[in-house]
Amino acid sequence: MNCSDITRSRLQSFYKIRLKTALVFPFILQITIAVGLVGYFSFKNGQKAVENLAQQLIESVSVRIENHVLEYFNKSFQVLRITEDNVKAGTLDLNDFEGLKQYFWNVVAEGDLESYLSYGNEQGEFIGVEHLETNQVQLKIRTLETEPMREVYRLDEWGNRAEFLKQAEYDPRQRPWYQAAKQAQKPTWSSIYPFFSRQNTDTALGMSAVHGVVTIGIGDVTGHGLESGILMVMIQSAVRTLKEVKEHDPIKFLNTLNRMIYYNIQRMNSDKNLTLAILNYSEGLLSISGQHEEILIVRQGGNIERISTMDLGLPIGLDEDIAEFISHTLISLNSGDGAVLYTDGITEAKNRQKKFYGLEKLCSIISQNWYREAEGIKNAVIEDVKSFMGEQKQFDDITLLVIKKK
């Protein structure tokens, strides 16, 4: 065999391989592209279906909550109107606290209309009857003889005082419900405010835990009153719904929530919006997304890192789509570390000289008291804010949450 035969044989083998490749490769390429496109579109369609389902659930829950809230408010108006009629008719004397106690007890004992009725006057006297979730009914009373203390009693099944429980300083004239009614000089709603006897806050705070991830939200709605309160209820229901459908991506989470709130605000013909920060904590890592006040990260020794949220989102309800403006940051928390969340009702609290309490003072008090448990830190801040304000009126809601890792 000479060189030309060898060359010819190799060329024939080469062309044979190329011919197989040329015939098989297009089929493989077509199959790969087809499978890839089917997979991609299936993923996108599935993703869209989940988003649509989440949106439908959010809207459904929001409508039910809104209807429930309005029904509850209508009951409150009915009770208020009946009480006002009794006062005008002379069958209910506002100076007769024993008669007021029995009247309030008759209303709240069943728990169908109101769970808490109270009355306060310009002399600082106060009486309230509350039906607790434990089915216990309590009397809360402050008179000229007991001031500045408000006494709390357990009532028996006939509405009589059965047991003295506790006493604490209390002045109804400083409470938002009293100030709102006095200013309006007519039946009116106050802003949503902390209700201390139930050890929670009815302002801008929601919390849930799903599959080891604790989600905390803190925000502040523009304005005050009923409309702002309903918007905050919508936010809480939306957060819980998104947690139930296991939406953990911070951008999709906030954008979906914003879209639902935006549509509801448009439907209500309202100009409300709110700041909202969402924090997810799991196994020592804290994820922060959304725009609100600065988040304070406190290390074990009391050193504070101030995390700006200005670049982590936009106010909720301003625009239909805010995905491109949402970001998130991750913070590692070790034993003894923690975070402090607050609303501007603290930093913008004023004293008689019209000076703000300020973020620097808040950080200082937190740092000085970080050796305490979370509850002790919270109490120290609240007491310092009250001391700073003195007798100055509180014009904005105050929300404070202290988180500390053991």
UniProtKB/TrEMBL annotation:
InterPro entries: Bact_Sigma-Reg (IPR052016), PPM-type-like_dom_sf (IPR036457), PPM-type_phosphatase-like_dom (IPR001932)
Pfam families, A to Z: SpoIIE
Gene Ontology MF term list: phosphatase activity
Presence of the UniProt keyword Transferase in the record: no
Protein keywords: Hydrolase, Membrane, Transmembrane, Transmembrane helix
Domain PPM-type phosphatase: 192-405
Transmembrane segments: 21-43
Stored PANTHER family: STAGE II SPORULATION PROTEIN E (PTHR43156:SF2), STAGE II SPORULATION PROTEIN E-RELATED (PTHR43156)
Protein's UniProt name: Protein serine/threonine phosphatase
Organism: Planktothrix agardhii CCAP 1459/11A
